[in-house]
Amino acid sequence: MTDGLTASLEASIREIPVVDCHEHTFLPDRRPARVDLGTLVAGSDLADDLISAGMPAEARARLGYADAAPFLGHVRNTGFSRSLMAAFAELFDFREETISATDWEALSELLATANTRPGWYDDVLGRGRVTTILRIQGDEPDPLAVPRRWFRPILRIDPWIVEAGSTTERERIAERAGGRGTTLAGYLEALDGWFSAAAAGGAVGIKSMLAYRRPLTHGRPTAEEAERLFQAKHRSAAEERALEDAIVHAVAERAGRAGLPWQIHVGIGSWQTNIVGNGDPVMLDPLVSAHRGTTFVLLHGGYPYLGQIGSMAKNHPNVVIECGWLAYIAPAAYRRALAEWLDSVPVSKILAVGADCAHVEQTLGALLLTRHDLARVLAEKIRHDGWSEKEAISSAHALLGGNAGSVYRLDGAGGGGGTRA
Q: For position 271, what pLDDT does the model report?
């Protein structure tokens, strides 16, 4: 049950425009041919929870009610499940606590029909008051050619880093950027061109997921050592990592010059990938310290490294916390972390929204959970920490949109109240 103060805050927060800082949203013309409930759940984080509860992983590819039914009751408590149920309540007035076989079919038809409507994205995102989505590059031919009605592009930078050791791949990447990859100097010149084109084409940031393949510790080879490693015909595993480290520093320097914040995955992984050991945000301390002119946006609240990511943002002017996915990975952890960060980190350095998903329906559900939990945290600040309601609402504007508008230099996006980190 929601108390009066929390309900009042939630009602006010519902009217605040939102900048969603992290999504992999299907472009409208690249959605699955039929978006039914099986497609939505299979392509969402809820399928991860179903597999964790015991559903065979191979069922994901053909997910139907019979596959999911034995496990739906086991995951009803999780944020991933609750977010979708909240979305179905908002969009289709579906308010049951469980999904029966009949419900599954009915929701499937409602979703499939809705996704054929030209205005469906407008409807869903409009209900959430989402003004802007920072969308991670997918498999579309031109990642900059996205509908600017909703999206601003975040480009993947990892290929430049992980393919530097492959003669064939690095030459292909450099040529695509209008350069040559036969020497390290030529490769970095092509990288300069890529950054220039990204900024000119409207990209607002870059993203890395290196934690999915290696720890986030980075050495810094000398220029001479980097050149030797680049030209070597054979490299040990340690040398491969050293070459990657050299390119990581080159990327950080160029991101700062281009004014493009660098999103870095830290903490928990997805799709049954346990990478927590690779993702401690404190590992990034030397990189962040070496590139003070670059804004590093550390993703997902660093879960489970909530205190560590808070210490990074508190100590480094160029570190920003993006905590959106956390809001429905573990809503209680989101509330706990947000309460702690609002006591210790400048409010301008916290980005509260980002569902990290492909379907707009799940984006809306995650946002509904985020708003509710933000209201709960702010109500506690008023009750116990001496905040005024005016201060709480001002902070909500910053957290939901204003900070992102400032960090990513978005013209006219969000609710105001942010300052550049």
A: 78
Spatial CA neighbour of 326 closest among 307, 302, 308, 343: 302
Residues 178 and 233 in one domain: yes
Question: Which tokens sit at 109?
Answer: 């038809």
Residue appearing with tokens 């299979």: 42
Separation between Cα atoms, residue 173 and residue 159, nearest integer Å: 8
The verdict on residue 5 lying in a domain is no
Burial class (CB in 10 A: 0-12, 13-18, 19+), 135: buried
Residue type for position 282 = V
**Are 252 and 290 a contacting pair, CB within 8 Å?**
yes
Residues 259-271 have pLDDT tens digits of: 999 999 999 988 7
Which ranges constitute the DSSP H helices of 262-330? 285-290, 306-315, 326-329
Residue 335 and residue 193 in one domain: yes
252: its two tokens: 């950080």
Structure tokens at 367: 């946002």
**3-class state of residue 22 by DSSP:** strand
Check whether residue 70 and residue 180 sit in a common domain: no
What is the rounded distance in angstroms from the CA atom of residue 82 to the CA atom of residue 365?
8
Q: How far is CA 12 from CA 113, 217, 288, in A?
A: 32, 42, 36
Cβ atoms of 34 and 415 within 8 Å: the answer is no
Domain count, the chain: 2
Which regions of the chain are under pLDDT 50? 413-421
Q: Who contacts 188 (Cβ-Cβ below 8 Å, separation ≥6)?
A: 250
Residue type, position 75, single letter: V
Tokens of 192: 């300069």
56 and 160 in a common domain: no
pLDDT computed for residue 414 by the predictor: 41
Q: Is 141 exposed, middle or buried (0-12, 13-18, 19+ CB in 10 A)?
A: exposed
pLDDT attached to residue 415: 39
Task: Specify whether 59 is located in the same domain as 148.
Answer: no
Parent domain of 89? 37-114
**pTM for the structure as a whole:** 0.94
Of the three residues 93, 114, 135, the one that is the final residue of a domain is: 114
How many residues are present in the chain? 421
Same domain, 226 and 298: yes
**Distance (Å, whole) CA 421 – CA 407:** 6
Amino acid at site 353: V
- Residue spans of alpha helices (H) in 139-236: 158-162, 167-176, 184-200, 223-231
198 and 50: one domain? no
